[in-house]
Amino acid sequence: MNARTVCAFGLLAVSVMPWGSGWANDGTPGSVERGRYLVTIGNCVGCHTARFIALDGKVPEDTWFTGSPLGFRSQTGTTYAPNLRLYFQELSEDAWVAVARTAPYRRPMPGWSLRVMTDDDLLAVYRYIRSMGPKGDRAPDFLPPGQEPPRPYIELPTPPSQ
User: Fold this and answer.
1) Peptide bond preceding 108: is omega within 30 degrees of 0, i.e. cis?
2) Could you give the count of Cα atoms lying within 13 Å of 46 in the half-sphere of its Cβ?
3) Residues 133, 41: contact at Cβ < 8 Å?
């Protein structure tokens, strides 16, 4: 399975965000509405939607999750946030939960956040994004180290040695 990047900021918020945050949320486990809430507070949409952060979130919801040409370059290569609306059309719910729990994510994808989400929350995310239907094109493929990516890209710092 192809592990791509999301955005470094965000999904951890899912595990610590208080429920009284003001967003409409029916709280129903696995619901589409809960999925929308989770991907918004977790900022999944920020990396998986072109120019979402640059435009302060003021992009039409029907363009969310169509991927981004913005690369994240590090010493391990350059990753791109994939078009999840196409990706989720290829996966069953069970396959998504398995990927979320076990995929070897590349920087800056916060894979640790997906791994601690409940199955109900993972299903809610899946159901919300899948309910949007397929749209857009695939994001660029991963580039191995040493290959110069086309602009735009963000140069990620080298992590400190352990």
Assistant:
1) yes
2) 16
3) no
Residue 141: half-sphere exposure toward Cβ, Cα within 13 Å: 4
Q: Kindly report whether the global pTM for this prediction surpasses the value 0.85.
A: no
CA nearest neighbour of 120 among 1, 4, 9, 37: 37
Distance CA 43, CA 53 (A): 9
- Where in the chain are the domains? 11-142
Please classify residue 145 by burial: count the beta carbons closer than 10 Å to its beta carbon, then call 0-12 exposed, 13-18 middle and 19+ buried. exposed
- Residues 112 and 134: their CA atoms lie apart, in Å, by 27
For 88, phi then psi, to 5°, come to -70, -20
pLDDT, tens digit (0-9, with 9 covering 90-100), for 98-154: 999 999 999 899 999 999 999 999 999 999 999 999 999 999 999 999 999 999 999
Q: 14-71 pLDDT, tens per residue?
A: 333 333 333 344 557 689 999 999 999 999 999 999 999 999 999 999 999 999 999 9
Taking the C-alpha atoms of residue 10 and residue 23, their distance in angstroms, rounded to an integer, is 16
